[in-house]
Every structure is written in structure tokens, then in C-alpha cells.
TrEMBL record:
This is DUF3159 domain-containing protein. The chain crosses the membrane at residues 12-33, 39-58, 65-82, 102-124, 145-163, 169-193. InterPro entries: UCP010219 (IPR016566). Keywords: Membrane, Transmembrane, Transmembrane helix. The keyword Transmembrane applies.
């Protein structure tokens, strides 16, 4: 389907972005704990860590929009925790972003613009040509449900911990559910893609427009 050995993990990055996302979270928990449960210290360390990750991403030539959004999430979480005086509210923003992501991914599937297709199509330089291929569109729709389930799984863990004010458990859950969950999601969604596409399909790098007789078949 693609060149030998290639997968969604290789196309989309996977572990690097996931680890970078966890760094400010761990920094907040470490600062909060080292300062005797000091929210200002935890927030300050998290923002510094987030800025460091952003600088690293930009130096590595990563997409500036994604870098800015990631740093913004850290800064908003820090401000919310400082405002409410509840350390667990640093993670509240991540609860909201996961809920919004689950809804957005589900909506993209229902309107036949699955986000997985948009992301992979952009990485492969296809723009929206993949949508002209009914088989590839269907495969992206099915594989995108795996990503919806990923966000739902996070919410199932995060919401009770946030409600109970378990800061360290929230930090641990965020770290554990970052790379391992993303890795599993990439692997499963890749498997769904491969299983959904017919054997004769040329692969995600080669969208095709089916002939009328093929569509009827």
C-alpha cells in the first residue's frame, strides 16, 4: 500500500509529539510538589518547559501553528490554575480539549471529511484528492473512529481524577496516556486502513477515482 515498512506512525511522527506534550505536564507536577504544593511555582515551571519545547520544535522546523497551539494550552492551563487556586485545574483545559477533539473527529466522519484523511492527505501533499476515491474515503472514515475512541478513553480516566483533585495522578495519567495511547491509536488505525481497503487498491499514496462499473460492483 505504501513503501515497504511505512506506517501512520512514520508518516505522522507519533512518539516525538506525544513526548513533547507530556513535558510541561510533568514540569507542572514537579514544580507544584517541590514548592510544597505551590501553584505559582508549578505554573511557572510548566510555562518555561512549554516555551523550551516550543523553541525546540521551531528549531527543528516543526509546524509553527501546532507549536503555538501547544504552548497556548500550557499557558491557559497555568492561568486557569492560578485564577481558581486549584492545581487540578491546570489539567482542566486538557479535559476540555480532549472532549472537543472527540466531538470534532466524530463530526468530521459524519460529514465525510474525516480528519485522518485531512492530516495524512496534507502530509502526502494530496490536498483533498483522496476524497474522490470512495474506497479510501471509507477507509479513512472507519480509521478515524479509532481516534475518537482515543479521546473518549482519556476522558474516562481524566474526568474522575480531575473531579477528585488528584494532581499527581492526573500528571501520571497524562504521561502514560500520551505516547503509549497514541502509539496504539496509530497502529490500530493503520490496521483498520489496511483491512478496509480492497486488496487491489494501490494504497493511500495513490488515490484513485473508481469507474462507474466499479462503483456499482
Amino acid at each position: 500500500m505504501t513503501r515497504e515498512g511505512e506506517s501512520l506512525r512514520e508518516l505522522l511522527g507519533g512518539w516525538q509529539s506525544a513526548v513533547e506534550t507530556a513535558v510541561p505536564v510533568v514540569a507542572f507536577a514537579a514544580g507544584w510538589l517541590a514548592g510544597g504544593r505551590s501553584i505559582p511555582l508549578g505554573a511557572g515551571v510548566a510555562v518555561l518547559a512549554g516555551a523550551g519545547v516550543a523553541a525546540w520544535r521551531l528549531a527543528a522546523g516543526r509546524r509553527p501553528i501546532g507549536t503555538v497551539v501547544s504552548l497556548l494550552v500550557v499557558c491557559v492551563g497555568a492561568l486557569v490554575a492560578l485564577r481558581t487556586g486549584r492545581a487540578e485545574d491546570f489539567f482542566g483545559v486538557r479535559v476540555l480539549t480532549n472532549a472537543a477533539s472527540a466531538l470534532a473527529w466524530a463530526a468530521s466522519i459524519l460529514v465525510r471529511w474525516p480528519f485522518l484523511g485531512l492530516v495524512v492527505g496534507t502530509v502526502l501533499g494530496q490536498k483533498s484528492r483522496w476524497r474522490a476515491d470512495p474506497e479510501l474515503l471509507r477507509a479513512y472514515q472507519r480509521a478515524s473512529w479509532v481516534w475518537v475512541l482515543q479521546y473518549v478513553a482519556r476522558l474516562i480516566v481524566f474526568v474522575p481524577l480531575w473531579w477528585a483533585g488528584q494532581v499527581l495522578w492526573l500528571a501520571a495519567a497524562q504521561t502514560i496516556l500520551t505516547w503509549p495511547l497514541v502509539a496504539a491509536c496509530l497502529a490500530v488505525s493503520w490496521w483498520v486502513l489496511r483491512r478496509t481497503l480492497p486488496e487491489a487498491h494501490p494504497g493511500i499514496r495513490h488515490p484513485r477515482v473508481l469507474q462507474p462499473q466499479e462503483q456499482r460492483g
